[in-house]
Structure formats: C-alpha cells, structure tokens
Amino acid sequence: MRPALEAVADAWGAIQRYGAALLLIAMTALYGFNVLVRALLPQYASTFAWIEEAARYMMVWVVFLAVGIALEVGRHIVIDLLWGRLGARAERWLFALIDVIGVLFSVLMMVLSIQLAIFVAGSGQISPTLGVPAYVLYVAPVVGFASLAFSFLLRLFAVRDARRTPSAAAWLKGGES
C-alpha cells in the first residue's frame, strides 16, 4: 500500500509543482507584456485589460496548488517550542494530534469551499473581463484544501513527514529516481 500511496503522492506533487510553475511563468509573461503595451503603445492598453484579472486568477490558483507542497516538504509555519523537548512517544502523539486536526480542518474547509463553488456556479456569475464562469476561481480552494488534507494524511501515516526526515519525493529531485 505504501508504494502505491507514494506513487500517487509523487504524481500529484508533480502536477501541483508544474501547474504552479507554468501559471507563474504565464502570469509573469502577461504582466511584462502588459507593462510594455502601456509604456510603448498606450492607445492599446484597454485592449489588454483582461490581463490583470487573468493574473489574479492565476495567483489564486498558484497559492492553492502550492499549499499541499509546502506542507509536504516542511515549509509551513511551525512553532517548535516543544519539538525535541518531549520524549519520543509524547512527540509522536503530539504530531499525530496536529495531523488529525489538520486533516479535519482541511476537510471542513474543502467542504465549505465546495459549497461556495456550487453557490457561485448556481448564480451564473461571469468574470467581468475574461468572461469565464466565476466559480473557476472558487474551485482553487477545493483543490488546495484537498491537497492539504492529503499531505496531512501522508504525515499522519508516516509516508511523508518532513518533520522527521527530509522529503524524498521523486518530484522534488526533478523527476530522477
């Protein structure tokens, strides 16, 4: 079971990493292009008003794609006042409690995000300049919190826990095995 879980974690990590990277590159390119148009050809600036909205959508997606990755590799905020000062058994229990609370919180937020996305989709709201359904923006937290719950579960079952050992995910090594 563990190898299968690691394979799923590696595949999902690669999707998140490359998706976030592509969105960041596209966002940077669009912003750069927008600046050039405004500086060199201001008469066409209004034609590209959609770029700012697209960049906002991209940034929201980047944040929620990266949240699970950050937890998996140990880059979330941590208060380590007790870490290392407890016995091994107490530390395991504390880590398990943190992970269970993290899973429960992430699942709750995912459910609330789903409800919000469904509400927005039902409203028929369309983004002003892009003309895409507004719920596309509200699906990002669903993906992000699902990913966060998955990362907490990986930690809980000691499949990937950057607190104890550095992450050995294949996608962190650039795909090398």
Number of domains: 1
**SS summary, helix count:** 4
Shape assignment = elongated
The helix-and-strand class reads mainly alpha
Average pLDDT metric: 88
Strand content: under 5%
Q: What about the largest sheet?
A: none
Tell me the number of strands.
0
| Percent helix range | 55-70%
Describe this structure in words.
The chain is mostly helical and about 180 residues long. It has one domain (about 1-175). The chain has four helices and no strands. The chain has helices at about 1-40, 50-70, 90-125, 135-155. Helix 1 runs antiparallel to helix 2, helix 2 packs parallel to helix 4 (about 135-155) and helix 3 (about 90-125) packs antiparallel against helix 4.
In short:
The chain is mainly α. The protein has helices at 2-40, 50-72, 88-123, 135-156.
Reconstruct the topology from this structure.
Layout lengths: L1 H39 L9 H23 L15 H36 L11 H22 L21
Helix pairs in contact: 1-2, 2-4, 3-4
